[in-house]
Every structure is written in C-alpha cells, then in structure tokens.
Amino acid sequence: MPFERAPHLVFWELTKSCPLTCKHCRADSIKNQLPDELTTVEGKKLLEEIAEFGKIVVVFTGGDPLNREDVFELMDYAKSLGLVVSIAPAPSYNLTEENIKRIRNSALYMSISLDGAKETTHNWLRGFGSYKYAIQGIKLGLKYGIQVQVNTVVWKKSYEELPEMVKLLKDLGVKVWEVFFLIPVGRGSIELDIPREKYKEVINFLIEASKYDLVVRTVEAPFFRRAKLEGGSSSELSKRLRDLLGEPTGKLDKSIMPTRDGSGVIFVSYNGEVYPSGFLPLSLGNVREKSIVEIYRNSELLRMIREGKLKGKCGQCQYTNICGGSRARAYAVYNDPLEEDPACPY
C-alpha cells in the first residue's frame, strides 16, 4: 500500500484567523485568533512527531498563517528537524517584501491563491482587493528564489478564464499550478461550482496545459491522473489555449503521485483535531491526546482508504489505486467517506 507508514503531505492549519472572508473557503476563517489554538510549545511537539514520519512536506496553512506571530519560529523549527517546509499564506496585505524575505529563509515552497485571470473575478470571490496582493506575492516570491505554486479554484466565473489563467502564469514565470475542485464545506457553496458535465472538459484542458512547461496538479479531482494516463482529448478550452500560446512545446508528464484524502495526506486543525484532509471534516483524534503518527498509522478509516476498500464505482474501478476518487466529496454528498465520488466523469 502506498503511504501505509507515512504521508507525503501534512497540512497544519496554524490559525483560523485571516484578513479575508472568501466566499468558498473551507476554513470558515475569522478575524481574530481563537483561544484554543495549539500553542508554540504544543506546535513544536507536533512538528517533532511529524518528523518521525521522515523527511516529508509540512504545509503551514490557515486562515492566514502569517497572522501568527510565531509562524517563522515554527517554520524554522520544522526546518531544523529535517522537514520540507511549505507555507500557504492568504493573498493579503501580509505578503510584504519583508515577510517574503523571511519566508525565503524558512521555507522551500510557497503557494498563493489566484482564482481568476481577471482582477474582478478573483476579487469577487476573495474580496478586499486581494488580486493585487496575490500578484505581488507571486512576483516577490519568484524574485527571492522561492518555489512558488499558484492555487486556483475552478468555479463558475474562473472556468471561462482558464486559458487566460495559464497565459498569466506563463507571463509571471510560475512553474507549478494546483487546481482545486469545489467541495461544499465551510463557506464553500455548491452554487459556485461548475456543472458536473463540465468537469471532464476541465480535466482535458489541464492535460493540455501541462504540455506548456507547467506542472499541473489537482485537489479533490484525482480522476485527473486517469486522464493523464489515457492522454486526454481536445476541448474548446484547449483550442483557446492554443490560440493564446501556440502549439504545446512539451510532452505530457504521466508521472503519478497517488495521494488522496487520508492516504498520503493528513490535516491538523488549529486546535489539534486531525482529519483525513482539510475538506473532509471527520475527526480521527487530537494531537493533544495522541501522536499524529499513531493516528495516521492506526486509524481504521484511513487503513480502508489506503487499501482502496471503497464502495460503488470507485470500489470496482481499475484505477482505484492511482485515483480512488475524492473521499471528501463522497462524505459531503453521501455522508460516507468510502462511497463513490459523485463527480467522477468516467
């Protein structure tokens, strides 16, 4: 079983505090820090436990992790333990040049959300004029040598702008693009989602986009991996991309990282509750009471997810091991994380 003993990624939600109130946010973030956040001491203990997994990636997220005064102390401690440090700050006024310089010294990776090629599209979803902060953060991150990943939510207004989004990333010099498919949790609303029949078109477009010297990943759309292996097919979005950038200059990278909620991925909330992912709010325990290593390795639910003991078409599919469907979407729709992914276009 892949990821039986250790995850590839641990996401730690340092705080729910965030300057933004994004319409789709899974964190349901708030203005002020909550009193039951893990303390600095508790956070360092958590990082020591995470380091028992080996040299894996720990992502400091939120809310906005830059709202915590000890964020750089914690990232530096993670780095000293041999962990690969990444941070996902909110696209806000916290992305100052000073903070970007400090991030460069503490983290290898930084991901910034940009949810539309047009300023009006992004700002409608995230508010507070955050488009300018996202662009500023991306440019400064690249300027100071940070490996910057851009995160984009596919939603009704960003869908039509996806070709322009790829052109913008290319113009900025971004090499990694992670595309999120909506799950109705937190503030996330099904009203923002694209029609299910459009999912396959987006997947085929992402395959095309990956041929332009761009590493493309998806969140809550693991069926993208199946499409990669099968090669995808042309779409109207793909044709528009060619009009903008010309014919693809590279080949499709068919390498696969078969993570899914609870298998290769684990999420620790601001107060220590552990979940299969940030989009699957089903508690597995709390790090204040039990080691995250013990929770990850011994959870019966996670074991079933890792073994592919799934229901419906996900349990019967020949691509279960490399895809396995979104466990978060199955839980959101059927209240069962082992059910089939209702959004799978195959």
From TrEMBL:
- Which key words are in the record? 4Fe-4S, Iron, Iron-sulfur, Metal-binding, S-adenosyl-L-methionine
Report the GO molecular function annotations. 4 iron, 4 sulfur cluster binding; catalytic activity; metal ion binding
PROSITE patterns in the cross-refs: RADICAL_SAM
Q: Does the keyword S-adenosyl-L-methionine apply?
A: yes
Which SUPFAM superfamilies has this protein been placed in?
A: Radical SAM enzymes (SSF102114)
Required cofactor(s): [4Fe-4S] cluster
Q: Which residues form the Radical SAM core domain?
A: 4-213
A Pfam family in this protein? SPASM
Fetch the InterPro entries from UniProt. Answer: 4Fe4S-binding_SPASM_dom, Aldolase_TIM, Elp3/MiaA/NifB-like_rSAM, PqqE-like, Radical_SAM_PqqE_MftC-like, rSAM, rSAM_sf
The lineage's top-level taxon is Archaea
This one is known as: Radical SAM/SPASM domain-containing protein
